[in-house]
Amino acid sequence: MSRADDFQRQGYLVLPGFASAEACDALKARAEELVAGFQPEKISIFTTHEQTRTSDEYFLSSGDQIRFFFEEGAFKPDGTLRQDKALSINKIGHALHDLEPRFDRFSRAPELAELARELGVKQPLLLQSMYIFKQPHIGGEVNSHQDSTFLYTDPPTCLGFWFALEDATLENGCLWALPGGHALGLKKRFVRAPGGGTAFRVLDSTPVPDKGFVPLEVKKGTLVVLHGLLPHKSGANTSPKSRHAYSVHLVDGTASYPEDNWLHRSPSMPARGF
Fold first, then answer.
1. Three-point CA angle 128, 131, 135, nearest 5°
2. For the chain, how big is the Rg over CA atoms in Å?
3. pLDDT tens for residues 60-102?
4. How many domains does the chain have?
5. 88 Cβ partners below 8 Å, 6+ apart?
6. Which domain holds residue 62?
7. Does residue 169 lie in a domain region?
8. C-alpha distance from residue 69 to each of 45, 54, 73, 233, 236 (Å)
9. In this structure, what CATH number is given to the domain that contains residue 46?
C-alpha cells in the first residue's frame, strides 16, 4: 500500500528519519538564538482552551511575522516569569518559513515538495509555520482539534508537516491522533469576528469521540503528516525533558481562502510554494 493510500485511510503518516539529526539541531539552535534576542514588550500567552484563547492584535497580526507566545504556566501571580525566558516560551509563529533562511530551506526541501504532490496537493502554498517548545514541567496540554478549523479553505485542503526535533514520548507530551477521524468532517472554524477579535463558528455540533486516540511516540527526525480534518492533540509535558517540534502547514492554492480566516498575510508577502 502506498503512502498516499495509508494517508487517505488513517488521516496521518509517521515517517521516521525524514530529517537528519544535524538538520533538527540546526533548527533548534536558531530557535534558541531567536528567543535569546527576544525582548518582550508585549506578553502574549498561547492557549487552546477556547474560552480563554488569546486573540490580541499581537496574535492576529502574526501571519507574516515572527512572534513569540508564552506558556500559560510561565507566570507567577504577580505577572513575573517563574523561570528563565528561554524555558517559558510556548511557540514561535507564524512565518519562520518565509523570514528565516534556515527554516526556509528546511521547509522547502525537495522531499517535502514531492510528498505534498504525492498526497494530492495541486498547488501547494506554505501558509503557516510554528516552532513548538513543549517546555519541561510546564508545557501545556493541547486539546483535540482539527487544523482546518484554523486554516480553512473551500474545499478543505490543509496539510500539516510536523517534525520531531527531539524524541516525543508519553511523558513529554507526544502527539495523539484519531485514526480515520478525518472522515468525520470539519466541526468548526476559527474566524475573525465582525466586531473585532475572534470566534469559533460551529459547522457540526456532533462531538468528536473521546476514545480511540493513539499515541504517536516518535524519535527525533520523524515527520508526522496530518490531514487537516484529522482530530489530534498532545498531552502536557510533566517530564524534565523538552519536546521541541517544528510544523509547517500547507494549503492548496486552487481552493478558496475566505477573508474571515484569522490568519492574514500582507499583500506584499503572499503565501509561496516550494
1. 145
2. 18
3. 999 999 999 888 777 778 777 877 888 888 899 999 999 999 9
4. 1
5. 70, 71, 74, 75, 81, 82, 135, 138
6. 3-252
7. yes
8. 5, 10, 12, 19, 17
9. 2.60.120.620
